[in-house]
């Protein structure tokens, strides 16, 4: 009896047994969890930024936040899709009709990040705002989107992990990934790039004076999310068209793309820490 019980416990989890659906069936239309994840992330980021800019010394006003989130939304969608085509599926660039089919999936985190950075730059330039300080205030809430987005990936049963060994009791057999039990790498990303980074950023903003060191919060976010993605990529299954690339280089495309991001984040963290904070007699003009 004990041996049978242990055998049952050691069986991998079957994804279909979890009873998850890919969205809310409205009869005439299915509202996808992934769409709701994007929406929730943007709304919560807007809410937190609107709250943060009411603190003393904020670098932007509410009208700037309104513009910022409009352009950031465009940056996430357009940058994410174009980034996916550039880094993961170049054939889409020659097929504009396929490129615009966002509902079929295929978004790049790195492309979305570039789109957001361009949105920061545009709003900062147009409003004569300090780019780094704007990035500091908004980056605190970006992990909301990462958390919900990766949870939606898990619910959709997509972007699964690599095959797991028998010692991984939480391994899952995903319906579209064959019979092998795999790491639920979507949950790893939700924990590292979402929840953990969100806690760190919130503590830095609300419990320290990090926001008075231009670039510290943005640098921490960039380095933190890059480090989290780099680690998770060891457990995440590479895209089918890039498996040979990962085998030949030793690292996945996602890992190679995170290395320069991590170095950029580290640079701004060090830069912010060696300079006097704003509000001191030695502090230089914002740059």
UniProtKB/TrEMBL annotation:
* Pathway it works in: Protein modification; lipoprotein biosynthesis (diacylglyceryl transfer)
Q: What are the GO MF terms of this UniProt record?
A: phosphatidylglycerol-prolipoprotein diacylglyceryl transferase activity
Q: Which Pfam families match?
A: LGT
Top EC category: transferase
Q: Does the keyword Acetylation apply?
A: no
Report the locations given in the UniProt record. Answer: Cell membrane
Among its keywords, does the record have Transferase?
A: yes
| Family indicated by similarity | Belongs to the Lgt family.
Instruction: Identify this protein by name.
Output: Phosphatidylglycerol--prolipoprotein diacylglyceryl transferase
Q: Which organism is it from?
A: Novosphingobium aquae
Q: What is the lineage of its organism?
A: Bacteria, Pseudomonadati, Pseudomonadota, Alphaproteobacteria, Sphingomonadales
Q: Which gene encodes it?
A: lgt
């Amino acid at each position: 009896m004990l041996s049978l019980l242990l055998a049952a416990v050691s069986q991998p989890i079957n994804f279909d047994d979890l009873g998850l659906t890919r969205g809310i069936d409205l009869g005439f239309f299915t509202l996808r969890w992934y769409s709701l994840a994007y929406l929730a992330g943007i709304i919560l980021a807007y809410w937190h930024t609107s709250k943060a800019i009411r603190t003393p010394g904020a670098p932007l006003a509410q009208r700037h936040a309104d513009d910022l989130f409009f352009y950031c939304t465009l940056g996430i969608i357009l940058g994410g899709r174009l980034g996916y085509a550039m880094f993961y599926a170049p054939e889409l660039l020659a097929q504009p009709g396929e490129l615009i089919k966002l509902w079929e999936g295929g978004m790049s985190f790195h492309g979305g990040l570039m789109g957001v950075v361009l949105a920061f730059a545009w709003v900062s330039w147009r409003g004569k705002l300090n780019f780094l300080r704007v990035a500091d205030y908004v980056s605190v809430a970006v992990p909301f989107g990462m958390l919900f987005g990766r949870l939606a990936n898990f619910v959709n049963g997509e972007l699964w992990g690599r095959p797991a060994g028998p010692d991984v009791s939480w391994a899952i057999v995903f319906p579209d990934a064959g019979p092998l039990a795999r790491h639920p790498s979507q949950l790893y990303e939700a924990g590292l790039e979402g929840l953990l980074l969100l806690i760190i950023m919130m503590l830095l903003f609300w419990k320290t004076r990090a926001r008075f060191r231009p670039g510290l919060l943005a640098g921490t976010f960039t380095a933190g999310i890059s480090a989290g993605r780099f680690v998770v990529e060891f457990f995440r299954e590479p895209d089918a068209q890039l498996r040979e690339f990962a085998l030949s280089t030793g690292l996945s495309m996602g890992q190679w793309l995170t290395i320069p991001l991590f170095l950029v984040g580290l640079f701004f963290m060090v830069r912010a820490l060696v300079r006097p904070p704003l509000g001191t007699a030695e502090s230089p003009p914002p740059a």
